[in-house]
């Protein structure tokens, strides 16, 4: 007996709804995950941003961003002259000179390497030169970028650099000599009547800054101005004159200190 053929079932035209529903569910899960991640990243970003603002001092004590001072130029269009004052720098803790290391040749080499590395990182190689000499460690602050032209004050941009030099000086107990130099071009303005005056004023200004702000003992540091009479290069060229306009910070070796002491006794 022949088997009865079952009638064909009608085609289900709505099966695509199952796949479509699965796709919508998957997309919803993806968007929920992305939203949750974005909220977490936003919160983390705010925390990192706040931490950086606190670290770099970009907020005042009340948590508000500092405001920029507006200079009233007036109708003349001339910006009024302002006194150059380097920003305050946290001073290293004071330590008696007797409790510090007396640097010798090995320490001087290490200090030179450390300062050279800092100058490369901060791109200040053209402003400062560091050298070892018979006298000790010589840190030369060039006029360009360090001092205002024809003035004794340092530029605001040099504050961090001077702070780094001061930190280095504070690590040792060696005596320090700050020596101002100029080129041979005559100067005569309302503040200085000679190159001697300018070189001495720059050295003295730097000594006052190092002792007053960075707690370097006044008994171990002194200022001297040589004018144009101890040039480092020829004054016949502009490059040579630029090299001569400088202030040398000399960290004396033990031998140089002893030689100075003997000369003072005579």
From TrEMBL:
All residue ranges annotated as the OmpA-like domain in the record: 134-255
Similarity remark: Belongs to the MotB family.
Lineage, highest ranks first: Bacteria, Pseudomonadati, Thermodesulfobacteriota, Desulfuromonadia, Geobacterales
Key words of the record: Cell membrane, Membrane, Transmembrane, Transmembrane helix
Main location as per UniProt: membrane
InterPro entries, alphabetized: Bact_OuterMem_StrucFunc, MotB-like_N_dom, OmpA-like, OmpA-like_sf
Subcellular location: Cell membrane
RNA-binding as UniProt keyword: no
Parts of the chain that traverse the membrane: 20-37
Protein name as it appears in the record: OmpA family protein
Species, as recorded: Geomesophilobacter sediminis
Membrane topology classification: Single-pass membrane protein
